[in-house]
């Protein structure tokens, strides 16, 4: 079945793309959740306009993300946490904690999903944390974890 995506669907396509999917996937998942519409000639013309609008929005988002990356790159974020004498933290510093610290210290709002941590930080010291602000814009930021 041919469908036109109304939203970006991971692993399938972006908003406005015309995709050929199995009937069951379309009937049971895409159509009921409002992620896609059944394709028709009129709808495909609309899909082209949707693709152009989405491309413009992504370009604007990328410009905004690049501006934030320039401001964020030289910033060193300081976070205090309870730690043992050995330098191990009693808890951990998570992406949410880092996003909050960036907002408080640099005045830049970043989504928690933008903070890329493989595992929570469990040691004091300096850590390089990657911020993925846009699909094509990433910036490493230094985060210092200080014992309280």
Question: Could you describe the 3D structure shown?
Answer:
This protein is elongated. The strands form three sheets. Strands 4-9-8-6 form a four-stranded mixed β-sheet. It has helices at residues 23-30, 41-72, 95-106; strands spanning 2-5, 18-20, 36-38, 76-81, 88-93, 115-116, 121-123, 125-134, 137-147. The termini are far apart. The model has no long low-confidence stretch (mean pLDDT 91). With 148 residues, the protein is of the alpha+beta class. The protein contains three helices and nine strands.
Fill in the keyword field for this structure.
single chain; 148 residues; alpha+beta; four-stranded mixed β-sheet; 9 strands; elongated
